[in-house]
Specification:
Blueprint lengths: L2 E3 L8 E8 L6 H4 L4 E5 L6 E8 L2 H13 L4 E9 L1
Antiparallel strand pairs: 1-5, 2-4, 2-5, 3-4
Length: about 80
């Protein structure tokens, strides 16, 4: 699957990719609106990408708040559109 960057729509659905520090267990997917979780990097530079479709930016804020509440550092947030 290939994605390109797209202009955000506040109340429109979108595909988002969020990169965080450390590795997340796949069980986090339920907390994060069923987004896909892929771990990467070496132990000293571990990161996780969380990717999935969200109904709007309010849902995106819910995901970001869930990460914040659990003290997970966010490295990047990207809105993607299907190519």
């Amino acid at each position: 699957m290939e994605f390109t960057l797209a202009a955000p729509g506040f109340d429109q659905p979108g595909v988002y990719r969020i990169t965080v520090t450390g590795h997340l267990d796949v069980a986090w997917s339920e907390i994060l609106h069923d987004m896909a979780i892929v771990n990467g990097g070496e132990p000293e530079a571990a990161y996780t990408t969380v990717t999935g479709r969200l109904p709007d930016q309010a849902a995106l804020m819910g995901v970001l708040n869930a990460l914040y509440d659990r003290h997970v550092a966010v490295l990047a947030v990207e809105r993607l559109a299907a190519a």
